[in-house]
Design a protein that fits this description.
The complex is a heterodimer of chains A (about 260) and B (about 290). Chain A has about 260 residues and is of the alpha/beta class. Chain A is built from eleven helices and ten strands. The N and C termini of chain B lie far apart (about 60 Å). Classes of the chains: A alpha/beta (about 260), B mainly alpha (about 290). Chains A and B meet through helix 3, helix 4 and helix 7 of A and helix 7 and helix 8 of B. Chain B: One of its GO terms (molecular function) is phosphate transmembrane transporter activity.
Chain lengths: ~260, ~290
């Protein structure tokens, strides 16, 4: 991507009239949304509002849940990601994900990072070494673990494990990084580190985060989307949404009247 | 007036008595099993220790108790496990992976599942009849080592499948998601994430199932394993015998000296079983440390 598009923060993800059903349950109702590239977009809303579901449509993780049905358009860089032209393996390589609980594999720190590149066919040791170092540096974990790469990933603290998971996601060189309440299991200091990391990463990646923590959305995101009962209620610049929401329900939620 | 005076001392002492009686009952329940096992062990060791020498391992069976050994039976048992282990591992773990990871959770899968769980409880003699029909007669494998090993594979498969399924099911959803989210296919996820997380449980199940097979007699009697084998099987199509059959044969002889020989045979077999169970525990500990 050229620097010109970076500066303009063009739309990368385009969602149009998206409906999603789990069996008969209507989880997402007619969602229309555009997500700009190289910026942080936060999804907020009470539990069960569909924000995680929407996040998981972006890398098609919902496909694996039996009985999921989806209508509408989700396009990324102009391509419908639900069309037969897109292999789900390629999509997930381009759209990395970090989960609520740190979920490293029961392997060494090195093998956790190398897992993704190996899936996609990289075998050369020197290339893998390079990727592991680069990814860990990007996740600001390298200095803490560079001497212990052979150690089990479980020997790390929760916050380190989550940064390891971020490094693991970056190792396959994605364009988009999805973060599903990635700090909700962490202590405040680890949370802060990850928030700082997100600010670094948004120069290079498009970041979409789901969060329960409104202060976090306010601190770290450029755009914020508010969901309620499967509907997208409001989408705006974060500053505007928090200081001057246009919908009464958004105002009630961000001022703590419910949720 | 103390703050504890309104306590109903009598009611409390009744509660304590009940606790004590049940405590004693549970100790008794535990002891009966242990005492029976100890009595059995001591009895066997006393009978068998005299004949527990090198001849037992190096001699073939003989009409003369003093010269008889169980070389062919020990080797037969080991060969059988060596043939069984890879076959039952691949089939059992493969079936478990299919049922847990690939199969849709529908009525057919549930039906298969019910059948496998039921098969795990079918008496072993029934597997002998099955083995006789399919392998010995149907495939004309005759009374060979291969027939015996395949019959035993059928016997242990349901146990391996069920225990492997449990181990696979215990792998957290998040481990699979992590792999899928990196663009892995199903098999890559199974191989890279699910199996490393569940291999200790799977191996434990396999080893315990194999040690069960070592002790089984009935199905092999059914398919016609010999009781008197004075040679070592040189191919998988040769006739064979195994330890429990040799022991059974010695015990059914009238002479007391053969009974003592049987007792030494039991000691050898039990040591082998204990070694296998210990290796299962070691494996479990080794891998569970990494998880």
């Amino acid at each position: 991507m050229s620097t010109a598009t970076q500066a303009a923060n063009q739309t990368l993800i385009h969602i149009e009239q998206l409906n999603l059903y789990y069996g008969t349950y209507h989880a997402l109702k007619n969602v229309n949304l555009t997500i700009p590239e190289k910026a942080v977009t936060a999804f907020i809303g009470p539990s069960g509002c569909g924000k995680s579901t929407l996040l998981r449509t972006l890398n098609r993780m919902n496909d694996m849940i039996d009985g999921t049905r989806i209508e509408g358009l989700v396009s990324m860089g102009g391509t419908d990601i639900y069309s037969s032209d897109v292999d789900v393996e390629t999509l997930r390589k381009k759209v990395g994900m970090v989960f609520q609980q740190p979920n490293p594999f029961p392997k060494s720190i090195y093998d956790n990072i190398a897992y993704g590149p190996r899936l996609h066919g990289i075998k050369s040791k020197s290339q893998l070494d390079e990727i592991v170092e680069q990814s860990l540096k990007q996740a600001v974990l390298w200095d803490e673990v560079k001497d212990y790469l052979k150690r089990s990933a479980f020997s790390l603290s929760g916050g380190q494990q989550q940064r390891l998971c971020i490094a693991r996601a970056l190792a396959v060189n994605p364009d988009v990084l999805l973060m599903d309440e990635a700090t909700s299991a962490l202590d405040p200091i680890s949370t802060l580190k990850i928030e700082e990391l997100v600010q670094e990463l948004k120069n290079k990646y498009t970041i979409v985060m789901v969060t329960h923590n409104m202060q976090q959305a306010a601190r770290t995101s450029d755009q914020t989307v508010f969901f309620l009962n499967g509907e997208m209620v409001e989408f705006d610049q974060t500053e505007t949404l928090f200081s001057n929401p246009s919908d009464k329900r958004t105002e009630d939620y961000i001022t703590g009247r419910f949720g | 007036m103390s703050m504890f005076e309104d306590a109903n001392r009598k009611q409390i002492s009744n509660r304590r008595k009940k606790d004590l009686y049940l405590h004693l009952l549970f100790i008794a329940a535990t002891s009966i099993g242990i005492i029976a096992l100890m009595a059995l062990l001591i009895n066997i060791v006393l009978d068998g220790i005299g004949r527990l020498n090198l001849d037992l391992f190096t001699n073939y069976p003989s009409r003369v108790a003093e010269r008889a050994g169980m070389k062919s039976a020990i080797v037969g048992s080991i060969y059988m496990v060596l043939i069984m282990a890879p076959i039952s591992f691949v089939l059992g773990v493969g079936a478990a992976i299919y049922l847990e990871e690939y199969a849709k959770k529908n009525a057919i899968t549930r039906f298969i599942q019910l059948n496998i769980s039921t098969l795990a409880g079918v008496p072993s003699i029934v597997y002998g009849i099955l083995g006789l029909t399919i392998f010995v007669r149907g495939l004309s494998l005759d009374r060979s080592l291969l027939s015996g090993a395949l019959t035993m594979t059928l016997l242990v498969l349901p146990v391996i499948i069920v225990s492997a399924q449990e181990a696979i099911r215990a792998v957290p959803r998040a481990r699979r998601d992590a792999s899928f989210a990196l663009g892995a296919t199903k098999w890559q996820t199974v191989y890279g994430s699910v199996l490393p997380s569940s291999i200790s449980g799977i191996l434990t199940g396999v080893i315990l199932a194999l040690s069960r097979a070592i002790g089984e007699t009935a199905p092999l009697v059914m398919i016609g394993a010999l009781t008197f084998v004075a040679f070592l099987p040189s191919s998988i199509m040769d006739q064979f015998t195994v330890m429990p059959i040799q022991i059974f044969n010695w015990i059914s002889r009238p002479q007391v000296s053969f009974h003592d020989l049987a007792a030494s045979g039991i000691i050898v077999m039990m040591v082998m079983l204990v070694l296998m169970n210990i290796s299962a525990v070691i494996l479990r500990n080794k891998y569970s440390k990494q998880i």
